[in-house]
Amino acid sequence: MPVSSLHIAVFCRPLIPGEVKTRLIPAYGADGAARLYAQLVERTLRTVDEARTALGTSASLWVAGDVKHPSVRGWADRFELPVHAQCTGDLGEKMLHCLSSMVAAYERVLLIGTDCPALHVDHLRAASDAISETCPWVFTPAEDGGYVLVGSRAPVAAPFVGIAWSTSSVMAQTRVALKAKTIKWAETAPLWDIDEAADVERAFAEGLIVRG
Which of 8, 24, 130, 192 is most buried, by the most CB atoms less than 10 A from its CB? Predict the structure, then answer.
């Protein structure tokens, strides 16, 4: 596999208390939610760093917010990642812009967030392997009804239009949109991500993040 054939894009936000993992603030406070978010970003970027060696991939950060924020610059410097600004618009528009921008230079692009501490290199490998000339899309569904990874070799708008983002119907609506355009896609094994306090406790119990 050529080094340039696969790219992993990571969506993130600057580490600003009160602006990250806001659904966790009632349970952990703004500072506590920010500390949890910092752990999630670090874990995600370590996984991506492992993938660069194991899969021969490259990677980048795509930031919603200030790309020059010290937290962003710290992640970029320590993990040697180029930084891009997410475009304006809803989540679908942002994902399409990212995929379309990177597929011009790479054969396959995987896009992930930072909310899935269970994600590891084997999941990224499986997603990459699922993309082919006849199957241009791959998704890793989330247990809550969304998805934690989307990848493509030929991105188009169809999977991202008319989706009720941040709801339990995201993956179901995406399947309907793909079928309507007769676009083939693959799905890898579902994973879970962190949105609510119960998810945080699950991550603690599984040793994926630590308290404090």
Answer: 8
Residues shown for the chain: 212
- Contacts (Cβ under 8 Å, ≥6 apart) of 6: 55, 56, 57, 58, 106, 107, 108, 109, 110, 128
pLDDT at 2: 41
Distance between CA atoms of residues 93 and 35, nearest Å: 28
Q: Residue 116 has which token pair? A: 């899935």
- Measured at the CA of 34, the angle between CA 33 and CA 39, to 5 degrees, comes to 100
The residue among 194, 197, 149, 184 whose CA lies nearest residue 170 is 149
Select from 200, 194, 192 the least CA-distant residue to 143: 192
Domain boundary assignment for the chain: 3-205
The pLDDT of residue 3: 42
Nearest-angstrom CA–CA distance, 184 and 110: 16
Determine the Cα angle at 149 with ends 148 and 152, to 5°.
160
Phi-psi region of 162 (alpha: psi -120 to 50; beta: other; left: phi over 0): left
Residue 175: its pLDDT value, please?
A: 98
Q: Which CATH class is domain 3-205?
A: alpha beta
In the chain, how many H helices and how many E strands? 6, 7
pLDDT exceeds cutoff 50 at 1: no
Closest CA to 54 of 159, 157, 125, 142: 125
CA-CA distance, 129 to 132, in Å (whole number)? 8
Rg (C-alpha) for the chain, rounded Å, is 16
Q: Does the pLDDT at position 67 exceed 60?
A: yes
